[in-house]
Design a protein that fits this description.
By secondary structure, this protein is α/β, with parallel strands linked by helices. The chain has 11 helices and 8 strands. Strands 3-2-1-4-7-6-8-5 form an 8-stranded mixed sheet, with helices on both faces. Helix 3 links the parallel strand 2 and strand 3.
């Protein structure tokens, strides 16, 4: 089963080569890598092009970019990976095994890249919450059978919480496969804005979304902070 790895990016020249390099072995195994650039003003596209099967240009917005990549993907499985994330070397086979044994969608456990002990706690809580609720986040490398992704309409094209919205739609069809293998995502957001401050902000935004506050209002608050 071929996997299409879709990576949305915006001004990620500092890390994009490190993200794409480990995926080359997967390309050699027959999978494809699609990068969707949201209008980078740095060298993201130039650095990414040699490492990808396709490089697309899209309006900025993670949901818009991932939907654009999914639209031209040829794989039976879509795997959405953030541009600052390192995936397990055998991530493709783990996904294939999960799907072949009945999973319609799923995600990986996550580890944050920084050394601060509190970041280990943050990652542990993210993984536990996801396992208990059946809701995945983009940081966890969501994968889904292409047919199911199309059936639920893909990512809702909103500026924030698109991963939560997709998880809710997919969860109505099937529980996710929660893979124990860890991918490593950058902790720069927590380190730049403060770990505790970022935790509190994300909890507040998620609670507000659960209460029905529009993603547009939440995105404005997130940008302001």
């Amino acid at each position: 089963m071929r996997i299409s790895i879709v990576i949305p990016a915006l001004n990620e020249a500092a890390c994009i080569a490190a993200t794409l390099a480990p995926l080359q072995a997967m390309r050699a195994r027959g999978h494809e890598v699609i990068l969707v650039d949201g209008g980078s003003t740095d060298a993201t596209v130039a650095q990414a092009t040699p490492w990808c099967d396709r490089v697309l240009h899209s309006e900025a917005g993670r949901a818009l970019q991932m939907n654009a990549g999914a639209h031209i993907a040829s794989g039976e499985i879509l795997w959405f990976v953030h541009a600052d994330t390192d995936v397990p070397a055998n991530g493709d086979s783990l996904i294939q095994h999960a799907v072949q044994t009945g999973a319609a969608w799923g995600r990986f456990d996550v580890r944050l890249s920084g050394a601060h002990p509190l970041l280990r706690v943050v990652a542990w809580l993210m993984n536990l919450r996801s396992r208990l609720t059946g809701i995945a986040t983009g940081d966890q490398g969501m994968f889904v059978r292409r047919e199911l992704f199309n059936e639920v309409g893909g990512f809702a094209e909103m500026p924030l919480m698109e991963d939560i919205a997709l998880s809710r739609a997919l969860k109505r069809r099937a529980r996710p496969a929660c893979l124990r293998a860890r991918l490593v995502t950058s902790s720069r957001r927590w380190e730049c804005d403060g770990i505790v401050r970022t935790i509190l902000l994300m909890w507040r935004l998620r609670f507000a979304y659960w209460r029905g506050v529009s993603p547009e209002r939440l995105a404005a608050q997130y940008r302001h902070v």
